[in-house]
Design brief:
By secondary structure, the chain is mainly alpha-helical. The chain is built from 4 helices and no strands. Helix 1 (4-20) packs antiparallel against helix 2, helix 1 packs parallel to helix 3 and helix 3 (48-64) packs antiparallel against helix 4 (68-81).
Length: 99
């Protein structure tokens, strides 16, 4: 995907399905792609909301795979990268708390 937000949405969705059918290790593999922050030549790096969603999905996948330390690290990444909420101009990508 040329759009990094769409790429993250696709990867998170794929990982959720793998996790739900009992393939948590494969879900982790889908989300642990080196260089994912820059999906391809000329593509923009992930924005804060997309990175937060990706890190949160990795936390869930690691937890399902039975790796609590990796899950906590990913959750800390997600919490640390959560974008500031602009109350004046709330438009823009949203991160669902369920993610």
């Amino acid at each position: 995907a040329a759009d990094p937000v769409l790429l993250v949405a696709a990867l998170v969705g794929r990982a959720e399905i793998l996790r739900e059918i009992g393939l948590a290790d494969r879900a982790v593999g889908v989300l642990e792609v080196p260089g994912l922050e820059v999906p391809g030549p000329g593509a923009a790096p992930l924005d804060a909301a997309a990175y937060t969603r990706l890190a949160a999905a990795r936390a869930v996948a690691h937890a399902a795979a039975g790796d609590p330390p990796a899950s906590r690290r990913a959750l800390e990444e997600a919490a640390g990268s959560f974008p500031a909420i602009d109350a004046v101009r709330p438009a823009g990508p949203a991160v669902e708390l369920a993610d």
